[in-house]
Amino acid sequence: MAVTKFLARDLKIEIETAVADTFVEIKGLNSITHAPTSTDAETSDFNSEGRSEHLKAERGDSWTCAGFTLEDVTDGTRDPGQARVEAVSQLIGPEALINYRLTSPGGNTIEFAGSAEVTLSGGGTNDASQWQAVVRASGPITFTPAP
Q1: How far apart are CA 32 and CA 66, in angstroms?
Q2: How many CB atoms lie within 10 A of CB 56?
Q3: Could you read off the pLDDT of 98-121 as tens digits, one per residue?
Q4: What is the pTM of this model?
């Protein structure tokens, strides 16, 4: 099949459960946005002839996952993926680094350990309740091509 465009809604992001190597999808999303960052070490000197020089010193990545709060309004049961992200977003130290996996429709994956910051339910009078998590990678990212 030819290389083609795909819909962002066909991306899937998952968080590892308390059981190692077991992931649960974070549902209710209508947006996943990647935000790369980097830090440069300045290396300009008098011999740079007025041109900026640098070495790439550090790279970082985060993903903003936004959508709607999912809850059974009769008994309070939450979407397992959203509930897991909310729970780990309260952790501190090494325990706050949880494994995440982003999968494309063709099966390419990005896996990383990261911490999360969650914006809990909210919205206006006639809005569906919104939910958002910013997941910030810590350490290496593993890119695995589809099998």
Answers
A1: 7
A2: 9
A3: 999 999 999 999 999 999 999 999
A4: 0.92
